[in-house]
Design goal:
Number of strands: 4
Largest sheet: 4 strands, antiparallel
Strand order of the largest sheet: 1-2-3-4
Radius of gyration: 22 Å
Distance between the termini: 59 Å
Oligomer: single chain
Strand content: 15-25%
Helix content: 40-55%
Order of helices and strands: HHEEEE
Number of helices: 2
C-alpha cells in the first residue's frame, strides 16, 4: 500500500473508534452489530410482510437457522407450494 492509503485507513479507523465511543459503544464491533441489527429490523418490515400479487399473497419466511423460503397463499386461504404459472 502507498503511504497515502495507509494514512486514509488510519484516519478511517480513528473516526470509527471515536464514533463508537460517542454513541456509547465500547468498540467499533459493538457499533457494527447494533447498526446491522437495525438494518435487519428494517429489512424484515419490507421482506417479511405479505405482498399481494393479483389473487395471491407472497412473503419471504426465514427460519431459526437463517434459511429462507417463499410462501404463497391464494386469497389468504390456502398455502401453495409454488406460484402457479399463468395460462
Amino acid at each position: 500500500m502507498h503511504k497515502e492509503e495507509l494514512v486514509k485507513l488510519k484516519l478511517l479507523k480513528v473516526s470509527l473508534e471515536n464514533l463508537s465511543r460517542n454513541m456509547g459503544y465500547s468498540d467499533v464491533t459493538r457499533l457494527t452489530w447494533a447498526m446491522e441489527s437495525e438494518m435487519m429490523a428494517e429489512m424484515k418490515k419490507i421482506f417479511l410482510s405479505l405482498r399481494k400479487i393479483q389473487d395471491y399473497s407472497v412473503c419471504i419466511e426465514i427460519d431459526d437457522l437463517g434459511q429462507s423460503s417463499i410462501k404463497y397463499e391464494k386469497k389468504m386461504e390456502k398455502v401453495l407450494k409454488s406460484l402457479p404459472t399463468k395460462n
